[in-house]
UniProtKB/TrEMBL annotation:
Keywords in alphabetical order: Decarboxylase, Lyase, Pyrimidine biosynthesis
Pathway in which the depicted protein is active: Pyrimidine metabolism; UMP biosynthesis via de novo pathway; UMP from orotate: step 2/2
Catalyzed reaction equations: orotidine 5'-phosphate + H(+) = UMP + CO2
Name of the featured protein: Orotidine 5'-phosphate decarboxylase
PROSITE patterns xrefs: OMPDECASE
Keyword DNA damage (UniProt): no
Species the sequence originates in: Scleroderma citrinum Foug A
Principal EC category: lyase
Lineage, highest ranks first: Eukaryota, Fungi, Dikarya, Basidiomycota, Agaricomycotina
Molecular function GO labels: orotate phosphoribosyltransferase activity; orotidine-5'-phosphate decarboxylase activity
Length: 278
């Protein structure tokens, strides 16, 4: 059967990339397909949120460069929490430059992303060299890292459509040891597949941003769909939720954050169970 009709557990047992395998195992063990996007600028809020949502997530998604008081101990603590609470870390860096530059941006600078992020993502716009550049760092790491290609974005008017998406998927098929899936809005198995593609063995994870239970969008082009639309109907594997859980106000209410995380975990898991039971 197609990957989205199989259980996360079966897919974990079969996956060859260690980061993908760890993520699928964690989803099965914690019964969650929820990733929380911790888009805040203060380190204290960052960790308050992570501690509140940790039991309910398989993945914490970061934009590490928006923290105003970042210091090296932040990513060290994040790694510690990840192993303590069993979740993976996804730095939403969206690399989009030549291979040599993205390799440096991934490994170096102040953040040294490859040291602590299990998963990163890249725009396919530069062509395959963006993948090989990042793989030159990620595949060297002791713990294998995984890359997601941005095949589709959630925003209104996004240019990630048609042939662009098809070419992104074709590129990913050439580097299946490192490219573990896509940021996308639906499954990609059928996309651009020719008869020579061994699609039966292919298991790309689909991580979908743009998920909300209470709002349809924001004032800056974001568009939201529900976990049922995203997981049951469109076959995505992980729901990525930011403001639906952390709120939009300046002050963080950890009790509300915790409740919302529980609510999205339950909705995401129910949507998955309805899908595999079909
Ligand atoms: F690639 C993408 C995309 O297509 N849409 C997104 O929203 C990434 N995102 C990220 O997911 C975005 O940068 C935010 O960090 C997060 C969504 O946050 P929200 O608060 O749930 O809208």
């Amino acid at each position: 059967p197609a990957p989205h009709l199989q259980s996360y557990k079966d897919r974990a047992d079969r996956h060859t990339n260690l980061a993908a395998r760890a993520l699928l195992r964690c989803m099965d063990a914690k019964k969650t397909n929820l990733a929380v996007s911790v888009d805040v600028t203060r380190t204290k809020d960052f960790f308050d949120i992570i501690e509140a949502v940790a039991p309910y997530v398989c993945l914490i998604k970061t934009h590490i460069d928006i923290l105003e008081d970042w210091e090296p101990s932040v990513t060290a603590k994040l790694q510690m929490l990840a192993s303590e609470h069993n979740f993976l870390i996804f730095e939403d860096r969206k690399f989009a430059d030549i291979g040599n530059t993205v390799a440096l941006q991934y490994s170096s600078g102040i953040y040294k992303i490859s040291d602590w992020a299990h998963i990163v993502n890249a725009h396919p716009v530069p062509g395959p060299s963006v993948i090989t550049g990042l793989a030159s760092v990620g595949m060297k790491s002791k713990e294998t890292r995984g890359l997601l290609l941005l095949a589709e974005m959630s925003t209104k008017g996004a240019l990630t459509t048609g042939n662009y998406t098809v070419d992104a998927v074709r590129m990913a098929r050439q580097y299946r040891e490192f490219v573990i899936g896509f940021i996308a809005q639906r499954r990609m198995e059928g996309v651009g597949a020719s008869e020579t593609d061994i699609t039966a063995e292919e298991d790309f994870l689909i991580l979908a941003p743009g998920v909300g239970l209470d709002a349809k969008g924001d004032a800056m082009g974001q568009q939201y769909r529900t976990p049922t639309e995203v997981v049951t109907e469109c076959g995505c594997d992980v729901i990525i939720v930011g403001r639906g859980i952390i709120g939009t106000g300046r002050d963080i209410d950890v009790e509300v954050v915790k409740r919302q995380a529980q609510r999205y975990q339950a909705a995401g898991w129910e949507a998955y169970e309805n899908r595999v039971a079909r």
